[in-house]
Request: fold
Amino acid sequence: METRLLDQNWKDIWVVELETSVFGIEVNEWLIHRALVYQLANARHNIAHTKTRSDVVGSTRKLYKQKHTGNARVWSANSPIRRKWWVAFWPRNNRNFTLEMNKKERRKALYCALSAKVLNNELIVIDDIKLNAIKTKEMASIFTKIPYTKNVLLAIPAKNELLQKSSENLPYVKSILVDYLNIADLLKYKTLVLLKDSLVKLNTIK
Reply:
């Protein structure tokens, strides 16, 4: 498989090879969905927390005798059906939402998402991006010329302060290390921009 190689002015300069086992496999939408649910569930942090009956302080005295009052049979004032006391069946912060998915499935789901980018013409490979300083304006001038939808995931091969900080304030660009490409970001951002060195890393994944 081949695709165009562009410079930072979005002009064609050459073609590059795409590894078929990474960018050319059959897209399995069910597997992509499963990987997305796995990622979001395992990133979930429990915040909501309500008190149980043992957490509230109050008298355990029976409010009135069991029979012959014409009222419902209640025990203490701590009952969850009474106002301002503990809540039954509401969230607790010790609930476990984590899911399991084996490594081969997660990797294949990532390949499916990358293959979908190729099929939908949403993958751009550029030779390099060179900036003279940390300037949002310079980065914006590069991405205003992009020939595709301006909702961009920029995958860089290694940490680069110039690129990362220059793109931080652009609402339509997110920079990420290619090693941390994930399903959620690939689905959120329509256009995937890979630097040439990032593509080399992806092509060598086994």
